[in-house]
Amino acid sequence: MKVLKFGGTSVGSSKNIKKIIEIIASNKDEKQIIVVSAFAKVTNLLLEAAQLASIKKATYTSVIEEIRLIHNQIISELFTNKDKNECLKFVNQKLIDLKSVLNSISLISELSAKSEANIVSYGELLSSFIITKALQVNSIDTIRKDTRELIITNTNYTSASVIFSITSKNIQSFFNSNNVQVTILPGFIASAENGDTTVLGRGGSDYTAAIIASALDANVLEIWTDVSGMFTANPSLVNQAIPIAQISYEEAMELSHFGAKVIYPPTIYPVLKKEIPIRIKNTLKPKDEGTLISKTSYGKKNPVKGISHIDNVTLITLEGSGMVGIPGFSKRLFETLATEKINVKLITQASSEHSICIGIDDSNANLAKTAIDNTFEFEILKGKIKPLEVEKNLSIIAIVGDNMKNHQGISGKMFGTLGKNNVNIRAIAQGASEKNISAVIAAKDVKKGINSLHERFFKNNNKQLNLFITGVGNVGAKLIEQIEQQHQFLLENLNINIRIVGLSNSRQMVFDDEGLDLASWEEQLNNGEKASLSNFLQKVKILNLRNSVFVDITANSNVAEMYPEYLKNSTAVVACNKIASSANYKKYKELKELSREYNVPYLFETNVGAGLPIIDTLNNLIASGDQILNIQAVLSGSLNFIFNNFNDNTEFYDVVKQAQHEGYTEPDPRIDLSGVDVARKILILARESGYELNLNEIENNSFLTDNNNKAASVDDFYNTLKKDANHFKGLLKSAKKNNCQLKYVAELFNEKARVGLKEIPVGHPFYNLEGKDNIVMFYTKRYPEQPMIIKGAGAGADVTASGLFADIIKIANN
């Protein structure tokens, strides 16, 4: 024998009802008991009509007509002729009865719990009649039984408790004498011993099915809904959530209590005692396996079975030194709440008894505060207890699994993951069994928190990085191109999903929390809103996405000034912009400290060598205990390109122009040729080596003339390069005379740094440095004579973008 329950969405249309008929017909060799809910939306409409009638709003009659329309449409699509008329007549009569009840409520302007239970029962009475008729029309041996004749409850009308001794006898007596293949039962409804209609609470149709299954020792209880089982998390919040193949009764109860709406929590209790398995199935996809709920939990490789949450939580804290060591405070607190019929969702208490925190529903917050304040009025007046602290707009997030107790570090992973994503925890609750670990967090952080935890505990998930990029010139465009090109590779090989969520240039900015379409990012940006650095930061905060990364591909000091705010918001910073790391030492130190304090990366590899791993190598040397003694480097790909292409057949002016055209220099080439850019780079390396230096302490031996330095604009600068052509030819002539190459060199030695143009002799590692290549030589305690050398392209949009990309991947891998 099988018991099957079909929920509101499963019976929400004639199309779905036809699916139900197919499912029932496929089990024709087995006796089936079918519990059905009201048609989709009908219960809510019935409650709405009841409320309107109680405040004398005549519009409740239009709600009745809406209910009629829903049923009449389904009837018209399922039946013809005689059967159609019979169903329409039944619906019409029931709605006349309903209107009469609502008229009475309107006259007295009062909606009692008894009347409300009677009103909402109409939904299941109507749906069960229509579905019974649909099965009969399809030649399936079917009868309908009113559940009110079987399930007996107390008189707590809208959330009645079942009297199991009487109920079980009624069910067994009826079904033992009934050999019909299919019996349809309206779910949710029951009756008190005095005959009044009662209901089992919202979601009570599941409970109805469980009561029937338990009384009859059914082989299985099937809950048919609109999803393919219980999921590892709410799929509407977590795109990567997957169905759970098998779960224990206890795990299912924990998940359902914490907001997993696939199953009504009390459903599990009646079948648990008799170890009747529950299977959650999808009416629209009946071939999907769904979720099996049984005595034993399988799949021990992952101790966490699911992640869930409860919204609309208020945290109430009773605190005071007068509570310490004095018995009875907890008893008085919970007696007060019980008297007011306030359900407690979470409890946490310090071992010193200095404070007790409880989580309750938002709707009970004011009532709870008033009641508790009255109970402890004397202690509050005497200062033994602080005035009650009430915090609203909170949620409870929970991870659930039977086997968590056998795995070390589950709590640490949970709280570490939340902390890394800037999710502040207000309270924690964990039982000794460790089947559930709960945390109270801000409601605004729920989506980020659940996604972060899902990523952490379910290994088949992709780690999602959400990028916010400012500056989409040559380098920015190349970075976007590389991300688009490598997207599939990263998904398949590294389980990394990189999404660009925000883009900005100096004029416009655009956002999409599901990720911008990289094939048309330029068009989207052109149609975006007006750019604003402060609004860009605010949008990052509002979106509040996990694993957020701010990527700065500008040379703008105002952008660099905002790094601290991003880091404080637990948003990683990847910077191509050198200004922040070469600013005043105090600001550089602040960024490094914020990165450590908020456990969020601040990476700027491209500040020194574009795509070359110079800073990373330096950091690894120091972390392993080595000490930097001396650094010699050619750190400007643009200057190296210029001096490699400047010869007797070229003009210095033309070579600089070519370097700018090919994207090797900054938009203002004076930054490169003045040596400021190289000075910033050696300063950053000095700081990363542990030296406290500022930019004004870097000795800069410029090769430019006074005319060059006084140029008021880029155009003026180029004019001075033409006028002073002989000066640059003289530099070249001197180098050739000494059989040397001109290289712009940066040095760090004895805690001092300098940059300048040098004549490099034959045999020196810098002599044959070609094109736009950079080279760095680290002399350390471990490499005192033969330095560690890093060499490669040090300029160009492609290599700079690849350096940024490498920093982004590093964040994903960590």
Produce the secondary structure layout.
Elements lengths: L1 E5 L7 H12 L6 E5 L5 H13 L5 H19 L2 H28 L4 H25 L4 E3 L7 E2 L10 H13 L5 E5 L2 E4 L4 E3 L4 H13 L3 E6 L20 E3 H9 L10 H6 L4 E5 L8 E4 L11 E14 L9 H11 L4 E6 L5 E7 L3 H11 L1 H5 L7 E12 L9 H11 L4 E6 L5 E7 L3 H12 L5 E8 L3 H21 L1 E9 L3 E4 L9 H6 L2 E2 L2 H11 L4 E5 L4 H4 L2 H6 L3 E4 L9 H13 L4 E2 L2 H4 L4 H10 L4 E7 L2 H9 L6 H10 L8 H4 L2 H13 L10 E3 L4 H5 L3 H10 L1 H13 L2 E10 L2 E10 L11 E8 L7 E6 L3 H17 L1
Parallel strand pairs: 1-2, 1-8, 2-5, 3-5, 4-6, 8-10, 9-11, 18-19, 18-22, 22-23, 23-24, 26-28
Antiparallel strand pairs: 6-7, 10-11, 12-14, 12-15, 13-14, 15-17, 16-17, 19-20, 20-21, 25-27, 25-29, 27-28, 29-30
Describe the structure.
- Helices cover 42% and strands 21% of the residues.
- It has 814 residues and is α/β, with parallel strands linked by helices.
- Strands 3-5-2-1-8-10-11-9 form an eight-stranded mixed beta sheet, with helices on both faces.
- A hairpin with a 5-residue loop joins β16 and β17.
- The relative contact order is 0.06.
- The mean pLDDT is 92.
Note the gap between the termini: 53 Å
Structural class, by secondary structure, is alpha/beta
How many DSSP-defined strands?
Answer: 30
Strand order of the largest sheet: 3-5-2-1-8-10-11-9
Radius of gyration: 36 Å
pLDDT averaged residue by residue: 92
Q: Which residues sit in consecutive blocks of at least 5 with pLDDT less than 50? A: none
- Main sheet attributes: strand count, strand direction, barrel closure: 8 strands, mixed
Count of helical stretches = 30
- Report the portion of residues in β strands: 15-25%
Helix fraction by DSSP (H/I, runs of at least 4): 40-55%
Q: What shape does the CA trace take?
A: elongated
